[in-house]
Amino acid sequence: MRISTSQIHHQAISSMLDTSRQVATTQQQIASGRKFATPADDPVAASRIVSLNQELALRGQYQRNIQLANSQLSLEDAVLGQATEVLQRVRELALQGANGALTANDRSFIAKEVETRLDELFSIMNTRTATGEYLFAGFKGHTVPFVRDDSNGTRFQGDEGQRRVQVTASSQVAVNDSGKRLFMDIESVATTFVMNAHPANDARTRVSVGQGMVVDQEAVDALFPDRLLIEFNDTSSDPLGRANFTVRRMSDGRIVDGLANVVHVPGAAIVAQGMQFKLFGDPSVGDRFIMETTKTQNVVSTMSRLSSGLANLSDSPDDLRALQTLIDTSIGNLESAMDSVLTVRSEVGARLNTADSSAILHQDVEIVTKDLLSQLRDVDYAEAISRLNLQSFVLEAAQRSYGRVSGLSLFNVI
């Protein structure tokens, strides 16, 4: 077989160019630390790398969610711990108030601390997170959850929603709890009542309801679950034209004994079916108030009624008996409130454990994913440098061989 001079040159140059490209590719890999520069160099590996990067990005989002959950839940746990301390202290004050050796003046000092503790608890109930949202407002994070009314009671303006964050592909963790569950819907040890103004009342008048108390538990138990309606009559119903009201059962409209056309005296104590309350201000004709018996009580009402009783009940035998009943009920309700807080606090602890376990899982998966990603993408420097040395040697040998072969000629031997 004859090999032409041009064929020899062509093959030699092609071989050297191919080896030069291999050397350049290896040098680029060593310089960049990557096995390939474009997806076209290795489509299968490039596709797998994209999938692994997406997996890492998803794990990163889960870990950020877990950090948010840990921050929120740790704050809630600390706040609930503070609430428990306040409730425990108020319980101790209630026990002090039951001491028969104390006078009404002594109990008034205890009432002042109860009021101070109530202010502290109210601040806890309206705690904000680091993002400025209210912790116990449910989904209404930017709405103040608890507000006081003119009667020193409280209204809940949030909702019962519970926000959740995704911590794994198949699980979520709740990062807040509704204040309604925590502080409002607390089981009462005995039937009690709440009093609310009817929404159709004249908005121009300022009538408020004082904190009431149960003075005859049997009468209240007998009324449950019925309600009472207090309605202000026309002044013509009174011989002297004074403001007056009538109290009726809402189930049948029957007037409660002795409470027809009662003259309104602002701040005077009124007892209806074992429930004592006070009305302040100047009502308009037709204004109505509803007294609803219930088996639940909010913690603010419990503390307000305790404070009111300690401050206002005298040392008379009747008042002392009413005080003892109030203190017994208050202690029971405070214990129920602490149970409610502790139940939620245990749930918060379980959620924190779930978040921590999920974080560990993501860290383990991230390590495995990064290792596989490195195998597909990153250069093995020891192997690449050895390969570069070999390729450089081959290129140099090819260049020297070509130089010698290209210099051969018959003219050299003639």
Overall geometric form: rod-shaped
User: Which spans of ≥5 residues are poorly predicted at pLDDT below 50?
Assistant: none
Spatially, the strands of the biggest sheet line up as 5-13-8-9-10
Termini separation: 25 Å
Number of strands: 13
Question: How many H/I helices?
Answer: 8
Mean model confidence by pLDDT: 84
Which H/E pattern describes the elements?
A: HHHEEEEHEEEHEEEEEEHHH
For the biggest sheet, the summary is: 5 strands, antiparallel
Computed Rg:
41 Å
Please bin the fraction of helical residues: 40-55%
What structural class should be given to the helix and strand makeup?
A: alpha+beta
The amount of beta strand, in percent, is 15-25%
Q: What would your notes on this structure say?
A:
This protein has helices at 5-32, 43-97, 104-125, 179-184, 217-223, 299-312, 317-377, 381-406, and strands at residues 146-148, 154-156, 164-166, 172-174, 186-197, 207-209, 213-214, 227-232, 244-249, 262-263, 269-272, 275-281, 288-297. The protein is α+β, with helices and mostly antiparallel strands and 414 residues long. Helices cover 53% and strands 15% of the residues. β11 (269-272) and β12 (275-281) form a beta hairpin. α2 runs antiparallel to α7. The strands form four sheets. A five-stranded antiparallel beta sheet has the order 5-13-8-9-10.
